[in-house]
Design goal:
Layout: H1 3-29, E1 53-55, E2 58-60, E3 65-67, E4 72-74, E5 86-88, E6 91-93, E7 98-100, E8 103-105, E9 114-115, E10 120-122, E11 125-127, E12 132-133, E13 139-140, E14 156-158, E15 162-164, E16 169-170, E17 178-179, E18 188-192, E19 197-199, E20 202-204, E21 209-211, E22 216-218, E23 236-238, E24 242-244, E25 250-251, E26 256-257
Antiparallel strand pairs: 1-2, 3-4, 5-6, 7-8, 9-12, 10-11, 12-13, 14-15, 16-17, 18-21, 19-20, 21-22, 23-24, 25-26
Length: 258
């Protein structure tokens, strides 16, 4: 082999080496190192956890209690009946239970439509002592305003008749104590209603006259005649029954015009 052939072979090998180096460099240019994922340690299920940890499919934070089989992290139970799931020692209490020496106990069911003498469950909701559990399952801790013209702003107990909701009016003297409208100011038919109001067992519209003893609303005011011998001077309601025209006679007892 002469010198020329040797040179040709060496030049070829050098070119091949450069090509391989270029390929390696090109491949490395598009390769980025992977970012390692931190490993979340499993929570200790005895006592409050010391820091962030895995609890089944949940993640607990420092101070919470882990119940891995339920995949939940909860806070320690309060001294009173709980409104949320909570930790009682190494046991998890459900809503409405008490934590007593590491054990969960359930209170009695409230008596319906009566003031509660102790904490109890009202349709699954905690009702405090002194509250009121209605037949609809609502429980209220506060008493409604005794002023029948005041619109309630929150759930409240209306006397011992029931629970009124926000926006309703309370009248403990009524069997149906909670109303959507206030009671009419004038109940004898002498004054027009300034707005929708409750008249006995019915509701009068604005501008109508309430005869509460008969649960009747009339367009005309009550006749002011006290005797069948006195003519009425303007259109009026006779006993909340018939409407008399001017010049007629009203019998307020019978509610008849003649």
């Amino acid at each position: 082999m002469n010198i020329l052939n040797v040179l040709i072979i060496l030049i070829g090998l050098a070119a091949l080496g450069c090509g391989i180096a270029a390929l390696v460099t090109s491949g490395n240019r598009h390769k980025s190192p992977g970012t390692p994922h931190p490993v979340l340690l499993s929570c200790n299920e005895v006592g409050a956890v010391k820091g962030t940890c895995g609890c089944g499919h949940a993640t607990c934070q420092k101070g919470e209690f882990c119940f891995a089989k339920d995949n939940v992290c909860v806070d320690i139970c309060p001294d009173a009946m709980t409104n949320v799931d909570c930790a009682c020692g190494n046991t998890m209490c459900k809503i409405g239970q008490y934590c007593d020496a590491g054990k969960c106990t359930s209170p009695a069911t409230c008596e319906v439509d009566k003031t509660t003498t102790s904490d109890c469950l009202c349709s699954g909701h905690v009702c405090k002592a002194g509250g009121f559990c209605s037949a609809t399952g609502a429980c209220a801790d506060a008493m409604c305003s005794p002023d029948t013209t005041v619109r309630q702003t929150k759930l409240c107990v209306c006397g011992n008749k029931g629970v009124c909701h926000s926006g309703e009016y309370c009248d403990p003297s009524r069997e149906d104590a909670c109303m959507l409208s206030p009671p009419c100011v004038s109940k004898d038919g002498s004054g027009a209603a300034s707005g929708a109001c409750v008249c006995g067992d019915t509701v009068c519209e604005k501008g109508w006259y309430c005869h509460a003893d008969k649960s009747v609303c009339t367009e005309a005011p009550a006749c002011n005649a006290t005797s069948v011998t006195t003519k009425v001077t303007k259109a009026c309601s006779c006993g909340g029954n018939e409407e008399c025209n001017p010049g007629m006679y009203c019998d307020p007892i019978k509610g008849r015009c003649s």
